[in-house]
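Appendix B. Raw example, untouched.
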Amino acid sequence: ASKKDDKGRWTVFEKPAWGPWAVCRNDQSGFGEGAQSTGELIAYAPDIDHTNPQVQRDVKEWIAWMVSEVGIRALRLDFVIGFAPRIQEQYVRGADSPFAVAEYWHGDVNVLRNYINATKGAVAVFDFPVYYTLKHCVHSNDFGGLRWDGKPPGIMGLDPVRCCSFVENHDTDHLEIVGGPFGDSAQIVRGYVYILTHPGTPCVFWSDWADRGQDVRRQINCCVQLRHKVQIHCLSR
């Protein structure tokens, strides 16, 4: 939605010009006339009816434009519990299957694995089990927890091709609900040393690289260069 309506609801769609038919009928705004939602509802945005053929065509067209015209090379899917994984798979495959990663905020590796399977492997996930485990190990200075039955923790150990590991992101760096930031600069660097030398697809948080000073930036750069030099990749052992 691009504007609020006269009742203060985010229900005005201009590009594309969607109406109530594009919003799920059980949306909390009371505005929708579409099908029932295929996922969980949220209060701060309208729940789009992704089962609608016109919505699907418009979303696929927008993704294709982002890839072909803007030059986007990967997709990040936010709040993926909001609509069915099978439709997310359609969107990704409709764009010729670029690397796609989902924010499914859950610490249970089996929940994430089930989601990946529901997309038929089309979408990777931010590896929250690795995040929580690594944060605990760094703070306790005990790294024994980073071995789960002889493998790395989380999706990294079960399906590393679909693991997107991270140390911090735009939510975890300030939300107390997850225990606050990962740690101080020294702890942040230890986190990057781990994810940049292990399988999966590691993600460097811009603020960690840009805002923590030259020494932290230098150490992260060294880890990135080492990863490339020794050709560590998502399936490395």
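End of appendix B.
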